[in-house]
Write a structure and sequence with these properties.
This is YceI family protein. This protein is mainly β. It has one helix and ten strands.
Length: 170
């Protein structure tokens, strides 16, 4: 039996703030030699902090059409039909299916929907703290982009993408 996480989080339902929150994607391309960093805008979401943290829930929706890196041509390609197909699938969505505590911290299991396809993902929570107007969460995950429905570019783009969510909620 593990001891409960001591936290200052106040139970309640919080609304994610798209203006203050960020979603960062990190991968490599050119046969894994060049790092690529990009961002995708948050549309919205909620976090419900339960008295028993294991019963907490989260959901978030990202805007697939806002992929932004340091290369406009790449951005158009990623947003286009070959990769995210943002015109047909404008949202990237996450919904939690469970929260669990491990010795190293809290994990949030969930379903990630990309291009209309669901895949399982686990977020590792590194920050969960109350703020003056709500709460702040930072979570990371490694996404298998092929399992998530983005199979194009296998020879030149890494299969895994590191996701970092820095979420502020009120």
């Amino acid at each position: 039996m593990t001891t409960p996480l001591r936290t200052t989080l106040r139970p309640g339902t919080y609304t994610l703030d798209p203006r203050r929150s960020t979603c960062r994607l990190d991968a490599t391309h050119v046969f894994g030699l060049k790092p690529v960093a990009a961002t995708v805008d948050l549309r919205g979401g909620t976090v419900t902090v339960a008295g028993d943290l294991a019963a907490s829930t989260a959901s978030a929706v990202l805007d697939a059409g806002t992929f932004h890196s340091d290369d406009e041509r790449r951005d158009r390609d990623i947003i286009g039909k070959r990769f995210l197909d943002a015109e047909q699938h404008p949202a990237i969505a996450f919904r939690s299916t469970g929260c669990r505590r491990e010795e190293s911290g809290w994990l949030i299991d969930g379903i990630l929907r990309v291009r209309g396809r669901d895949s399982e993902v686990t977020l590792r929570l590194s920050t969960a703290e109350s703020t003056a107007d709500g709460c702040h969460f930072v979570a990371t995950a490694t996404i298998d982009r092929v399992a998530a429905g983005v199979g194009t570019g296998r020879a030149i783009i890494a299969r895994t993408v590191r996701l970092t969510l820095d979420m502020w909620a009120a």
